[in-house]
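Fill in residues.
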């Protein structure tokens, strides 16, 4: 099995290089051999402008993988699908459910927009792939499918519900990660990691048969994590032997700083490009 160089380009993030559009969202382009994969689409305002700034032609994207169904990862779908009429979409059916963040009795919708849903619904059935379990896109690229929640210290990272009254908890079962076998080890791409980064790593190691982890890139959703969760997360990440962590989007400032100290890592930002 040939392991090819992995090129990662962050198109959308809360943090940006000069001249880029910032937004609360995430989108990442992966180039692996002949495959060009877009992982999430951001909230919708930054995707096209930032892609243009990076000389990325979204019309040439082969596959779109949605990490989960929140608005800040799916809002760019209408713009993307208006440009690209051939790509295949990989997502979990639960990504289309109504969902809310409920704080102090106030409900904020966090679901995919109606426009984005309508765009997906217009895609020919043969180009939609519903993912619930681990799936290989190529010999070296895989999608986790649903991630088992095994440990006792990781949660979804927020007050997420299916109803505005906050009575039906949303476990965000559609949360998925993308992984690539590179010459240097696994490259793991995460959107918000609502399943928990340690749950995610353990699942990927089981389904991929690989234990060497080179890079983790994406949102870790630790912005609401307490001290115990942060400490245990960092301890487990150290045990995993991961070489590089590039936290993005929803990781949170406290977690960012702790990861920077422990792993000598830098924040991800729109405009960042790395090769592995």
């Amino acid at each position: 099995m040939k392991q090819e160089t992995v090129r990662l380009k962050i198109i959308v993030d809360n943090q940006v290089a000069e001249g880029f559009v910032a937004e609360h969202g995430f989108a990442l382009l992966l180039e692996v051999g002949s495959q060009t994969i877009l992982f999430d689409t951001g909230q919708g305002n930054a995707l096209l402008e930032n892609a243009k700034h990076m000389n990325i032609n979204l019309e040439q994207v082969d596959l779109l993988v949605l990490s989960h169904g929140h608005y800040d990862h799916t809002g760019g779908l209408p713009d993307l699908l208006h440009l690209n009429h051939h790509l295949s979409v990989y997502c979990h059916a639960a990504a289309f459910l109504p969902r809310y963040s409920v704080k102090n009795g106030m409900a904020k919708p966090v679901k995919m927009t109606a426009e984005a849903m309508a765009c997906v619904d217009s895609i020919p059935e043969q180009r939609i792939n519903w993912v619930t379990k681990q799936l290989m896109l190529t010999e070296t690229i895989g999608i986790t499918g649903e991630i088992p929640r095994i440990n006792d210290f990781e949660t979804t990272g927020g007050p997420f519900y299916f109803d505005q009254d906050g009575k039906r908890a949303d476990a965000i079962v559609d949360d998925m990660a993308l992984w690539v076998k590179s010459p240097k080890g696994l490259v793991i791409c995460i959107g918000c990691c609502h399943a928990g980064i340690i749950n995610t790593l353990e699942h990927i190691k089981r389904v991929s048969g690989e234990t060497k982890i080179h890079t983790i890139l994406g949102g870790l959703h630790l912005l609401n994590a307490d001290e115990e969760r942060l400490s245990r997360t960092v301890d487990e990440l150290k045990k995993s032997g991961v070489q590089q962590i590039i936290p993005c989007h929803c990781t949170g400032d406290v977690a960012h700083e702790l990861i920077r100290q422990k792993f000598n890592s830098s924040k991800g930002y729109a405009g960042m490009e790395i090769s592995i």
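The two ends are 17 Å apart (CA to CA).
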